[in-house]
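User: Hey, quick favor. My workstation is busy. Could you predict this chain's structure for me?
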Amino acid sequence: MEEQIEKLGTIVSIWAHPDDETYLAGGIMAAAAELGQRVVCVSATEGEHGTDDPVAWPPERLGRTRRWEAAAAMAVLGVTDHRFLGYPDGGMAALDPEEPVARIAALLVDVAPDTVLTFGPDGGTFHPDHQTISAWVGAAWERAGRPGRLLHATMTAEHLETWGERYEQWRVFMTDERPVGVTPEDLALDLRLTGVALDRKIAALLAMHTQVAPAVALLGIDDYRDLNAGEAFIEAP
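Assistant: No problem, here it is.
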């Protein structure tokens, strides 16, 4: 694993909501930070609408709480540079992309990453915010002169075969569409976490209690650990 991580160099990890990055790249970021590589993590929103109970969790309260949760998760992962862009949760697709694309491009020019991590075009779960940040990052990467490699989070066919039914129970998909799994040969980065590395990622996820508690209750902690042990990325087209 260490060799895979070292090749990533300086990492910019850009996502829609706080917890996206930990689910999809928490192990990668933690390992890179531990090796002394620079890791800049970016959340486009605070995830202030990420609840099934907006009466108990109005946006201002949930957004504030998710910032605290994210700070705790980043402390576990060893990531010391976590930035929020302040865009509206659930409303990113309606925004004019010019300002966010220019802003992300400026960040990429400033950091000069060797690797950029984000969602693929399907957003993994077909969440409009996930799809929008993927498009923004792709456009910003082009505008910035394609600094480093742009990698998209993905799922393998084997992963979907193993966990597809549990994803349906978890209701993670936002439309009737479903992701198409890739083969191992398609992967640019394939990380399987075990032992301490997996313990650290799960500890970071559990710090985000408002988001993960229902999933842990549904899946059970053993399946939740196994489901989140893999992190896979392909080269952006």
